[in-house]
């Protein structure tokens, strides 16, 4: 009897758990071709990132990076861009992730923005502890920097 119950429980876990595992969330890689962000759904067009002007546009929202955010790009860097517009179990809204990797450094920055509004979700510093281990530290922004970032977002047509 106990064996039958155990078999049933294992079967239920595998039957219901395995499909969830198969649909695990993965960010989509977004390519920067010139100033165009390629890989986002048409709902987010036009999508542009102009680094010389520190300007990001997604759909009808545009952001000119505040001086605080511009400082993240001072050193030579590589930029990796990912996004997700699927439903997130974590409660995150659709987002775009700008991962700024200063060259020859053991840290990077992660700028996570709401894809629908460009509001800042999180800014963090990612420390490289080893080839396989990182440590992500959220940056606590003072109110003035939060306001500058919020005020840098505008609606465009």
Structural class: alpha+beta
Low-confidence stretches: 10-15, 17-23
Q: What average pLDDT do the residues reach? A: 89
Give the overall silhouette: globular
Strand content: 35-45%
Determine Rg (CA atoms, Å).
20 Å
- Biggest sheet overview: 7 strands, antiparallel
Instruction: Give the assembly state of these chains.
Output: single chain
Give the terminus-to-terminus CA distance.
67 Å
**Secondary structure tally: strands:** 11
Structural features, described:
The chain is of the alpha+beta class. It has one domain (27-155). It is built from three helices and eleven strands, in the order αβββββαβββββαβ. The chain has helices at 2-22, 67-70, 143-151, and strands at residues 28-33, 36-38, 47-50, 55-58, 61-64, 77-84, 95-102, 107-114, 120-128, 134-138, 153-155. The strands form two sheets. It has a seven-stranded antiparallel beta sheet, covered by helices on one side. A four-stranded antiparallel beta sheet has the order 3-4-5-11. The longest helix is centred in the first third of the chain and has 21 residues, at 2-22. The N and C termini lie far apart (67 Å).
At a glance:
Helix content is 22%, strand content 39%.
Give a topology summary.
Layout: H1 2-22, E1 28-33, E2 36-38, E3 47-50, E4 55-58, E5 61-64, H2 67-70, E6 77-84, E7 95-102, E8 107-114, E9 120-128, E10 134-138, H3 143-151, E11 153-155
Antiparallel strand pairs: 1-2, 1-6, 3-4, 4-5, 5-11, 6-7, 7-8, 8-9, 9-10
């Amino acid at each position: 009897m106990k064996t039958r119950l155990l078999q049933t429980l294992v079967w239920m876990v595998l039957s219901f758990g395995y499909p969830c595992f198969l649909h695990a969330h993965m960010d989509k890689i977004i390519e920067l071709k010139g100033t165009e962000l390629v890989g986002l759904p048409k709902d987010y067009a036009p999508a542009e990132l102009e680094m010389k002007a520190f300007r990001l546009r997604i759909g009808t929202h545009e952001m000119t990076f505040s001086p605080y955010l511009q400082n993240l790009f001072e050193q030579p860097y590589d930029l990796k861009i990912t996004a997700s517009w699927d439903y997130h179990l974590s409660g995150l809204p659709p987002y775009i992730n700008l991962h700024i990797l200063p060259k020859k450094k053991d840290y990077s920055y992660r700028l996570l923005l709401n894809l629908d509004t460009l509001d800042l979700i999180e800014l963090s510093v990612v420390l490289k502890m080893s080839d396989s281990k990182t440590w992500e530290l959220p940056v606590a922004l003072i109110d003035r920097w939060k306001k500058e970032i919020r005020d840098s977002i505008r609606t465009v047509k």
